[in-house]
Please model this.
Amino acid sequence: MDTQRQPGNAIRSELVAHFQKMREPLLKQWMQLMTSEGLLTGIAAGETENELATIYDTRVRCLETGRYDEARAYAKALTERGALRGMTAGQIVGVCRSLCHVCGRSLFDLYHGDLARLNGALDVYEPVANRILSIVVAAFIEEKEKTVRQQQEAIRELSTPVLQLREGLLILPIIGMIDTQRARQLTEQLLRAIRANRARVAVLDITGVAAV
Model:
């Protein structure tokens, strides 16, 4: 069949059938490749096989349907339960790239000697693989940013304790820089402490503030 005239949907269906048929050997090759490259650090050993199988199946379904809702949902679920935490951006990209490598190599084997069909298959497969990579990396970055925000919030809470000097008198020692967000947080924190302690006087100690 001339691939240049073959409808894109026909190529897509052919690829889906190939990846479904080759699921087990490709998963095994993928696992071996990542193990040899040290890419599985940060993923619990007991969860590795199930996680990789789900990633593989999700990719095949995205290829089949042309939709990425499932990939987004799964990437979000991974980060929420911490499967990606502790992994570097390089590891995340490496995991996805290694699957691309394994699947791409299988396409070279499938279309060996037929460059036109191979090019047609890659034209369909590669955009899907790249899109999924961007989705996973975006989920990873979002989770990391969320963790940083939570840590910053915890640091703010720890660095600005409201102390009760005596009944009715509170002091809030402030250290560091004060931006709009932190000023709002300090105000809310102080008001909560005033209500909780029924304080009449609150002292703001700003001797540790670089600039007011």
Summary: Confidence is low (pLDDT under 50) at residues 1-6. The helical segments are 8-21, 23-37, 45-65, 69-80, 89-110, 115-159, 180-197.
